[in-house]
Each structure stands twice: as structure tokens, then as C-alpha cells.
Amino acid sequence: MCGRLNVTDSPGVRALCEQLDICLWPEEGMINKRFIRATDRVSVVLKRDGMAQMHNALWWLLLDKQESEQGSVFKPSRYTSFNTRYDKVNQRGSAGYQAFRQQRCIIPAAGFGETLGSGSNAKYHDLIAADDANPLAMGGLYRWWKGTRPDGSVFYEISCSVVTVPPHSKLEAIHRKASPLMLSFNDGSIDKWLDDSLTNTDDLLPLLEPRLRHNFLVLPVDKPSTHKQTGAIFTIAADE
Known about the structure:
By secondary structure, this protein is mainly beta. It contains 3 helices and 16 strands.
């Protein structure tokens, strides 16, 4: 996955949030942007004591903490961690090992972007979930970071990553590396991933197999920032 998300205020995103019955929302509201990139803030949903909460997190799992007269400041670590690979979540000592067991989240999204090639040969595509009745959620991990303000009071920063799984054969024309973990209400994968009482991660391993749970509209663009269409829209069908 190439580190960009589309979280526009779409019917699908709204439907997903309604189905989650979120009890706690961030004070500043949900972040809705067509182009969210790694190190930006993104809205994540997690469960604590069985209740769904939304928080606005830094999309970079590992943070560095700096102290100053203005209090604690958290910045993305030099270690790349906007994605967490499926084959690292069971590796002791890895950034996602404990989070996979205790701190899983989802990122509601209208779609995501992928890149094939690099430099002047790069080709960019945006994938949009085609069915609002089957909203898209990315499976992710989160971590809490404790900081202090100048007055000595405590606050918490939250960070997140998107879990990536092996490449999917249907995506070869747009990306040949890892694909994001895509979850759906239709097969219970969202509920299973968010279940904070589920600590036996063997039950989660089937979700780490590459699977398309949604139909996608695919838009070729010149580059993510300008987002000019460069070819005909085509579709990629969900797995049966």
C-alpha cells in the first residue's frame, strides 16, 4: 500500500460510522479529506470495554517524544511505520506485536490510492469502494503515547498504522506489492478485528490472507495531488 487514503464525507463512510454505533467522537470531529497521506492525521475507530470510540490519530505507528518548555511534542519516528506487515504482527519485538493482540482499530475510508513503478514511470490509481451498502474499512493498529503539558497535566497522543497483507492478483495492474487489509460488515471481519475481548490472535490469522471484500471503481490519475483523470475508469470485482 502506497500511503494515501480517501476519507471523503461519502455515503459509505457515513453508513459505516452509523453501523459502528460510535459512543465517543473526537472534539474536532472526524477528518474528511480526499488525500490523506502518511504522517497526516486520520480518524480511527477502536473498541474499549466493548464500546466503539473514534480518535484522530497520527498515521505513523512509532512516534518520538520530545520535551520542551511547551510540554511534550510527538513526531513521527525515523523508522517507517505507516504500514504494519502481516508477517511482522507475530514477530516478538516488532512495532506491531503487542498492538496486534491488544490495540486493533479500523480506518473508515471511501477508498485508497496505489502506485505502480517509480519516478517518471510511476502510474497512479485511486480505488473507490463502489457499493455504499458495503462500506470499506482498513484494518489497523494503534498505540497510546503519554505526554505532559506545561502546567504538568497529562495528555495522550494516539498513533496508528494500516496492516498490509500479501499482494492480490486482481491488483497486479495497479500495484504489485502489499495490499491493505480491507474489512467489511458483510462477512463479520470488522466485528472480529475490533473485538477487544479477542486476544487469541490465531482467530485473526484468516483475515491476513489477501481478499477483496468490495467492488472497486478504479480511476487512473496523473498524480495524487492534482488528481487529473488520465484514462477510463474500470472496475475490479470483489472475490466470491
